[in-house]
Write a structure and sequence with these properties.
This protein is mostly helical and 169 residues long. Helix content is 60%, strand content 7%. The protein is built from 7 helices and 3 strands; from the N terminus they run αααβααββαα. The model has no long low-confidence stretch (mean pLDDT 92). It comes from Orrella dioscoreae.
């Protein structure tokens, strides 16, 4: 276990916010709540497509990397293999991806976007971007970049925690 740096006193601004609710002083609560909010915005912006954020992540990984095995997809999106298998099954049922056995290893299933899956990714791009923009829109532009950089730093520093890492270049 890594030693933590000594805690510092919160800024006056943070102390005032935490006065509203003790939960506002807990990063885990804030991350979970913001995830819920973003999920709602994503579904609102992309309702016509009937795709979940996790399904869109899988489609995006396939659009970016081409045909991959399910373990590679799991690493690309930071999901457990069983979750990826369920997502792929749903996407295949909608005709958005195709699966086949690997010619090198019959135990391995390869997945690639179907033409309709590629069209889905392209067709959703603007709606997805609106959801992302709406999530951070309350912040001034310079704070948006700072938030993104801080989130990336936290992800990179903690990526090995949990059951599935996210593949970092």
């Amino acid at each position: 276990m890594t030693a933590l740096p000594p805690a510092t006193a919160p800024s006056a601004e943070l102390a005032a916010a935490v006065q509203k609710s003790a939960l506002l002083g807990r990063p885990g609560f804030l991350i979970r709540r913001l995830h819920q909010i973003h999920g709602a915005l994503f579904l609102e912006e992309t309702a016509e497509f009937g795709i979940t954020p996790v399904q869109y992540s899988v489609l995006t990984a396939l659009a970016e990397h081409g045909e991959m095995d399910q373990i590679s997809i799991a690493l690309e999106v930071g999901l457990e293999r069983t979750t990826v298998a369920e997502v792929i099954q749903r996407l295949e049922g909608r005709g958005l991806v195709r699966r086949r056995q690997s010619p090198k290893d019959g135990r391995v299933r390869l997945v690639k976007l179907a033409r309709s899956g590629q069209q889905m990714v392209e067709g959703m791009a603007e709606a997805v971007q609106r959801a992302h923009d709406r999530t951070i829109a309350p912040l001034p532009p310079q704070d948006r970049d700072q938030l993104m950089l801080l989130l990336i730093r936290l992800l990179e520093a903690n990526n090995d925690v949990g059951t599935v890492p996210f593949r970092l270049p």
